[in-house]
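The data are passed on as follows:
___
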Amino acid sequence: MAFEVNTYSPSEVLFEVAGYQISGFKAITVSRNSPSFTIIKGIRGRNSRIRNRDSSCTITVDLIQTSIINDVLTQLHQEDIRTNAGRFNLDLTDQLGSSKIVSKDSFIESYPELVYSDSIEYRRWSFICLTTDYYTVGGNG
């Protein structure tokens, strides 16, 4: 009997924002902003559903407070505030698996909360993808 062993490696997860490679993250979270379907309640318990075409999602990344990437993201966000033209490409790819998120219409939602303490803290950056051109949740093979 043969067992298949799948491998996950955080170093094989590539996150690129506006051409900048985001590295040194603690965690990345991706969530759709709307469900794929909405239930419509019918009479006598006969329900239906409506397909929701909203492909937007929110991606959050936790970066260590000492990362130079915080400076890059701050500059991107400041430029967006100044010009209102800060939409950029975003690509999240698991190179050992089949998960991949691509958006050509994303932006930084806001500055992260700043926490200073007696230990190393993280900055949580939130990216809004107004649309996704590619959204695949897969495994690692």
Q: What stands out?
A: Residues 25 and 63 are 5 Å apart (CA to CA). The chain has a mean pLDDT of 91. The domain at 10-136 is CATH 2.30.110 (Pnp Oxidase; Chain A).
